[in-house]
Each structure stands twice: as C-alpha cells, then as structure tokens.
Amino acid sequence: MLILSSPSGAGKTTIARRLLELDPDIAMSVSATTRPMRPGEVDGKDYHFVDRPTFDAMVEANEFYEWAEVFGNCYGTPKAHIRAKLKQGQDTLFDIDWQGTQQLYQKAEADVVRVFILPPSIEELRRRLTGRGTDSEDVISARMARAQAEISHWDGYDYVVVNHDVDDCYTQIAQILAAERLKRARQTGLIGFVRELTRA
Ligand code: 5GP
C-alpha cells in the first residue's frame, strides 16, 4: 500500500498519474467522497461520488478501511476491492491525507509505505495555488492555510520528497517503490527459492 500525501499544489496528481501509467503492477485505490465533482473528473475513476446519507450509511456498515472529513467534505477508502487486490499481490496507490494515512498504518503497518511530497518553496506553492488569476485574495489565503496545515504532518511519513522538478520527483518515488518491493518480508516466494539454491 503506497500512500502519497501532499498539500494540493505540490504535484502529487501528476506523479500518481505517471506511476499508474508506467507501472502495470500498481493500481489506484478509488475513494468515495461527498465533495462535488470537478470539471474533467469521472465518477468511478477519480472518485465514487456519493451524497452524505450514502456516505454515512457506508460508515455505519463498516465499509471503509479508513475515512476522514477533509475541509468540510468526507472521503473514505472502500474496503472491498483493496482486500482482493492485496490478496492477489497487487500493489495499491493511495492519494489520501494524513488522517487516513495514520488509520491505514495502524491497521496494516507492515503493508504500508508512506510518502510525503513537499513543494519546493512557499512562493512556488502560492504560484501553483493562485490558479488562473481569477480567485480573490481570500480564496488564495484559505488555500495557502490548508496547504500549510497539511504540511505540518510531514513527520508522520517514512519518506519525504521535495518536488523541485517533477521528473526527478517521479524517479525518486519510483525508486522508493522498487526498494520497498525488494524488502525480504515482501518477497513471499523467496523461502522456496532459497531452499532450492541451498539444497545439497
Ligand atoms: P480533493 O478534494 O482535492 O480531491 O482531495 C482533498 C484531500 O482529501 C486530499 O488531501 C486527498 O489526499 C484527501 N483524500 C482523498 N481521498 C481520501 C480518502 O479516501 N481518505 C482520506 N483520509 N483522505 C482522502
């Protein structure tokens, strides 16, 4: 379970897309959310868009691995397909916030790798959050405050990558994934293989 967290504007979506495109062995966990769909988003691909009563019923029925309220909207990781994927040995990419990260870590510590992406500077973050120049100063300040609140949780992660350059940042995260896959405990076929090698 590879978790990518970052404040919005740090480049996480680009990195996640690239990982999914280039690595056939990792698939995205599609969360459920109560927030309205943004232009260009696809229901079932970016999120499962649900209304609040539906989300509450899913919480009640214990259908989420983890869920959290983030800036007034609810987000949750549905259990169903994650379990199936883990069983098949399929790696899963999570774009979730620090609250969800803590919950997943508590539930499945050995299976979780936590990566936090930081923007290269406060000026660059502001530039990326300023949008097309149509937002008011208040809206931009609110976005900056949210981003800084998210950044304050950077120390709850195994790896921290500063996104100076999106290509370098992608390469570093792909390297983290490659190294984590090579951990002895994750190479489940190794015992039989080594036994074969050491047979007298
Ligand atoms: P956005 O609305 O911009 O897509 O996401 C807002 C925040 O919610 C991001 O920090 C994102 O990582 C987080 N998020 C998305 N899905 C989930 C989820 O299933 N669980 C949790 N805890 N956070 C999520």
UniProtKB/TrEMBL annotation:
Entry-linked InterPro entries: GK/Ca_channel_bsu, Guanylate_kin-like_dom, Guanylate_kinase, Guanylate_kinase_CS, P-loop_NTPase
Entry's Gene Ontology molecular function annotations: kinase activity
The Guanylate kinase-like domain, residue ranges: 1-178
Record-listed E.C. numbers: 2.7.4.8
Keyword annotations from UniProtKB, A to Z: ATP-binding, Cytoplasm, Kinase, Nucleotide-binding, Transferase
Cell compartment(s), UniProt: Cytoplasm
Pfam name, any one: Guanylate_kin
Plastid among keywords: no
Keyword hit for Nucleotide-binding: yes
Chain positions recorded as ATP binding sites: S6, P7, S8, G9, A10, G11, K12, T13
Highest taxon, organism lineage: Bacteria
Chemical reaction(s) catalysed: GMP + ATP = GDP + ADP
NCBIfam families assigned: guanyl_kin
Function, in words: Essential for recycling GMP and indirectly, cGMP.
HAMAP family in alphabetical order: Guanylate_kinase (MF_00328)
Family, per entry: Belongs to the guanylate kinase family.
Protein known as: Guanylate kinase
